[in-house]
Design goal:
484 residues, 29% helix, 17 helices, alpha/beta, 26 strands
């Protein structure tokens, strides 16, 4: 479909070079994108290639592509970054102190931007599949785009003709009211639609419309390892027992998974698990290939998220059968997909991964050795804190088996012991609910790799001898590492 067929009304169509002039040298630039899809491509790339002395603060809902988190960084055009990233170039710059970075929960990011709690936004640059004088239809992600557009003084829209206009069918745009007039979000089921496919905006904000014809770089899912499969099998067995034990799952099982290859394997394990005649429903952040598999197999009733993070095969599958998938798949803004009240209302089982877990149930999701940033907390905190059942699934070791991911004390805490219920590794399941710290330590010790258990026992002996409700030997607690 041509660019002209994607536009409606008298629009300020511009080249990427002309559009980029609307971005000030030290602007705070809000960009669409989540799960490395649905982000603007040509305007950020043009900014990176310009000879301007730029010092940009860049805010996105989630991870974005190389045009932003590589090109702008390598051009020394980015001074600050919020609140998530997943590229080597930006990660290295943050860890070197060259780019200032601050992490935030996805559920509150829209409010943080809109109410002035984090940045003073100047301009929003977003990707769409169609646009009019006061509306646009997002592409492969929704994320915090509605809040960003509402908050920014100016708006640039990249209309991407390489993305199918059929993506319009997936979007369900609903904006929460501003407090103190904010009412409960009127969503009674994850598969229900309560909004519109379009994002409305003040036409006075629209500074430029740019034609783009570049697809998102597909997500690359590796084949599951033997360890992944063992973790998945342990999770599946645990969930079979759990659904028979708890009245929470009498009619259906509502799930959220973290993005990634392990998450894909875990989805398949749940799909293969014996959950009786209960419906399986997804309420989370990202649609991955594993969810398409469950939909194709008739094992998933509905899938609600904010992004389509798919492989090349997954993109083709969804785009070619958009009408069929749109019956069961919805994309919502991040301040709806990650809403604490909805996670609680639907009784979502949160399943995420981590860098490491300590013997008392604290979780490090973001920083190796407590200081070297990997990505950001993303939405894992939203789900881990608010789900009635919070699970961390991770391999027991890193660095080819040289490093234990079950440690005496994590050097950085993203999720506290109060939010975590269950830990799953390839060696077993530690159900921590209702246990004292000393009991949690014994359970988690059994999930560690056998080669590290004697050292953990020695540590616990020293710590217990020192006494205390949460026993620690502070002289040796950080002799361990939870590195990659």
């Amino acid at each position: 479909m041509s660019f002209e067929a994607r536009t409606e009304g008298d629009l300020p169509v511009a080249s990427p070079e002309a559009a980029s002039e609307h971005v000030g040298d030290d602007a705070t630039m809000l960009v669409s994108g989540f799960g490395s899809v649905g982000y603007p491509k040509l305007v950020p790339e043009t900014l990176a290639e310009s000879e301007r002395d730029l010092s940009l603060a860049v805010v996105s809902g989630g991870s974005v592509g190389e045009e932003i988190d590589v090109a702008l960084v390598e051009a020394d055009a980015m001074a600050r970054r919020y609140p998530f990233q997943a590229r080597d170039a930006i990660r290295e710059a943050i860890n070197a102190g060259e780019v200032a970075f601050a992490d935030r929960h996805i559920s509150t990011l829209g409010d943080d931007v809109q109410f002035g709690g984090m940045v003073d936004p100047d301009i929003a640059v977003v990707e769409a599949v169609s646009v009019g004088e006061d509306w646009l239809v997002p592409s492969t992600s929704l994320g915090l785009t509605p809040a960003f557009i509402e908050s920014a003084d100016e708006l640039i829209v990249e209309v991407n003709t390489a993305q199918p206009r059929a993506l319009e069918q997936f979007h369900d745009v609903y904006r929460p009211e501003i407090p103190p007039n904010r009412e409960p979000i009127p969503l009674s089921h994850p598969g229900e639609r309560i909004g519109d496919a379009r994002i409305q905006f003040d036409p006075a904000k629209l500074s430029a419309v740019v034609e783009t014809d570049r697809r998102d770089v597909p997500y690359e899912f590796r084949d599951p390892t033997e360890t992944d499969l063992e973790i998945a099998a342990n999770l599946g067995s645990f969930m079979e027992r759990e659904v028979d034990r708890s009245p929470l799952y009498e009619e259906s099982v509502r799930l959220q998974f973290g993005v990634g290859s392990l998450g894909n394997a875990l989805m398949r394990a749940i799909g293969d698990a014996d959950l009786g005649d209960r419906d399986l429903i997804y309420y989370g952040e990202v649609i991955q290939d594993g969810l398409l598999d469950l939909l194709d197999d008739g094992k998933l009733e509905a899938a609600s998220a904010t992004s389509l993070a798919l492989s090349a095969e997954g993109q083709t599958r969804l785009f070619e059968s958009a009408d069929r998938y749109a019956e069961d798949v919805l994309l919502r803004p991040g301040d709806v997909s990650n809403r604490a009240s909805l996670i609680d209302r639907f009784g979502v089982v949160a399943i995420n991964s981590a860098v490491g877990v300590d013997l008392y149930g604290h979780v490090n999701s973001t920083n190796v050795n407590g200081s070297r940033l990997i990505s950001g907390i993303g939405g894992s905190g939203d789900f881990t804190r608010n789900a009635p059942l919070s699970i961390i699934a991770l391999p027991s070791t890193a660095a080819g088996g040289e490093v234990s991911r079950i440690v005496p004390m994590v050097p950085h805490v993203d999720h506290t012991e109060h939010d975590l219920d269950v830990v799953v590794t390839e060696h077993g399941v530690a159900d921590l609910r209702g246990l004292s710290p000393r009991e949690r330590a014994r359970e988690l010790r059994e999930c560690a790799a056998p080669s590290f258990r004697s050292a953990l026992d020695e540590y616990l002996d020293r710590a217990t001898a020192a006494g205390g409700h949460v026993p620690h030997d502070l002289e040796t607690v950080f002799d361990w590492t939870d590195g990659e």
